[in-house]
Amino acid sequence: MIRLEDTTVSAISEAIRAEKNRKGAIAVGMVLTLIVVADEADQADALHAATAAASEHPMRILGIIPRPGRTAAQLDAEISVAGDEGPGELIALRLRGPMAAHTASVALPLLIPDAPVVVWWASDAPKSPATDPLGLLARRRITDAALAARSRAELQEHAHSYAPGDTDFAWTRVTPWRALLAAALDRPHAPVTGAEVAAARSNPSGPLLAAWLHQALGVPVTMRASRGPGITAVHLHTQRGDISITRPDGTKATLQVPGYPASEVGLRRRDTRDLLLEELRRLDPDEVYADTLAASPHFHADGP
């Protein structure tokens, strides 16, 4: 790890070039630049997840760590260029004092030329990611409404400001539920007449799953508040009984389809690395997410 204190962007670029020459590492094969925006408390976990994701997506990771305050403007950097140890490059940048207001100006010269840019806010996200100075540099913009104190209100803010290329980990967490529900509906079943989603009251993935079910099946969907963790159950109502997936512990789920024996399936809550890997596999706009996000504010939980 190369550490530069009170440095400049040009000095950082030169240090990256010199380290790549020393290790014999080259930028060929880098598929993107990932900008990770995090505060000091979250940056270690976020950069660890991003570094792990580089095993599947060789990339340059720019960790932007704003440190606003009444100190003098200062830029510090920590640089790690992979060689035999693995793919990717990591540049952690601490922007102190007034420098913290100029994240895009610092990041722009350090982007890999002609490679797509993804921005991930691993701490508080802007209200409008697409118009944020860093968001303007990116093809894809990743937020996580679950980090907000009022996570469902945060999701509604994202619905109002949505632009093609936006996505949220609240949606990514729904992927295994969607896959399991689709598999359950592949079996012969009576027509679905309605649905219910149970999730922790503060969980933002619940409204997204409810909105997706409403759009996919064209039936009324209600929400019920549960003790969590996250989404705990989905019930699809039919005249022959409910098609149900219940997951009370956040690890294993029980799938029940009328006319078939109940089965236990793995449905663990995924870690940040897995969520990030999924989102980095596609750089085009997610139209299904856009439609689902627009409908999600109409779904609210009832119950204790």
Q: Can you walk me through this structure?
A:
The protein is α/β, with parallel strands linked by helices. The protein has 2 domains: 2-143, no CATH class; 175-273 and 281-302. The protein has helices spanning 9-23, 40-53, 103-107, 151-161, 169-172, 175-185, 205-217, 272-280, 287-295; strands at 2-4, 32-37, 59-67, 74-81, 89-96, 117-121, 140-143, 166-168, 192-200, 221-226, 231-238, 243-246, 252-256, 263-266, 301-302. The protein has an 8-stranded mixed sheet with strand order 1-4-5-3-2-6-7-8, sandwiched between helices. A 7-stranded mixed sheet has the order 14-13-12-11-9-10-15, covered by helices on one side. Strand 12 (243-246) and strand 13 (252-256) form a beta hairpin. Helix 2 (40-53) packs across helix 8 (272-280) and helix 7 (205-217) crosses helix 9 (287-295).
Based on the model shown, name its key terms.
304 residues; alpha/beta; eight-stranded mixed β-sheet; seven-stranded mixed β-sheet
Could you give the count of β-strands? 15
Order of helices and strands: EHEHEEEHEEHEHHEHEEEEEHHE
| Global shape | elongated
Number of discrete helical segments: 9
What number of domains? Answer: 2
What would a concise description of this structure say?
The protein has 304 residues and is of the alpha/beta class. The chain is built from nine helices and 15 strands.
Give the topology, please.
Blueprint (H helix, E strand, L loop, with lengths): L1 E3 L4 H15 L8 E6 L2 H14 L5 E9 L6 E8 L7 E8 L6 H5 L9 E5 L18 E4 L7 H11 L4 E3 H4 L2 H11 L6 E9 L4 H13 L3 E6 L4 E8 L4 E4 L5 E5 L6 E4 L5 H9 L6 H9 L5 E2 L2
Parallel strand pairs: 2-3, 2-6, 3-5, 6-7, 7-8, 9-10, 10-15
Antiparallel strand pairs: 1-4, 4-5, 9-11, 11-12, 12-13, 13-14
Helix pairs in contact: 2-8, 7-9
